[in-house]
Amino acid sequence: MDGLDSAQLRTLAAVVAEGSFDAAARLLHVTPSAVSQRIKALEETVGQVLVRRARPCVATDAGRPLLRLAGQLALLEREALADARGPLAGGGRIRVAVVVNADSLATWFPAALARLPQRAGLSFDLRQDDQDHTAELLRDGSVTAAVTAQREAVQGCRVLRLGSMRYRTLATPEFAAAHFAKGLTAAALASAPLVVFDRKDRVQHRFIRAVAGRPLDPPVHYVPSIPAFSEMIRLGLGWSMVPEQIAEADLTAGGCVDLAPGRHLDVPLYWQHWRLESDVLNALTAAVRAVAAETLR
Questions:
Q1: Contact 169, 207 (CB under 8 A)
Q2: What is the pTM of this model?
Q3: What percent of the chain has pLDDT over 90?
Q4: Any idea where the HTH lysR-type domain is (predicted)?
């Protein structure tokens, strides 16, 4: 079989990243017909359909390894070009795509990016997903690295333990008195309104099962925004599990109480990234590990 064409691989990455052939064409400054021809030629080389023509376009199972390869080649190419041109010539910015769970993104992860040298010329494409699902984007090649709850290494990746994010049970004093006067009983947990980030977020239900000894189905508010999520709790609309770094301010101010003092839920987090000898990835990994060691359990 002939070798893979780098322009075709870049086009595959653009189609999946932008979601359509037309958008990829605009990004690459070519016609949609040229994009279609490149994808067709790549599919003929491999002998498999690589892109599912949908809205948005997504890589097929056969396309995922090539999508990952395209991202790896692009990163190494930009690093090599920057090194060859030198700092005075301006090697261009290097874009790194990383997927992070919402709670890490709202607390400790930005500090890791700030640890990187500003002269590194990095641009970050941060994606957000639940910690139990972030590895999927790493698996399909959409991102370079991930903060994830998955301890098993994705194929072609390295995995490092970061620590655990601790969650506390928060509600207003009035909400606690109205719904949990007798404590965290199964009846109270089944009836008290619960605030949940989105339908992938299972942290609260995991805690409920640990306390009640069985799954329960309480009324749920879905609030996919960290500021609004916290505000819903402060306004007494429900209770929830809140990252310790965010919970401390509300507990100290007295606006919220801990429904289960001394009891918490720790969620282990891992850092997974492509198995590449890359200065950018090495620097990013070192920064992430350093900040995680300072902030996570």
A1: yes
A2: 0.79
A3: 71
A4: 4-60
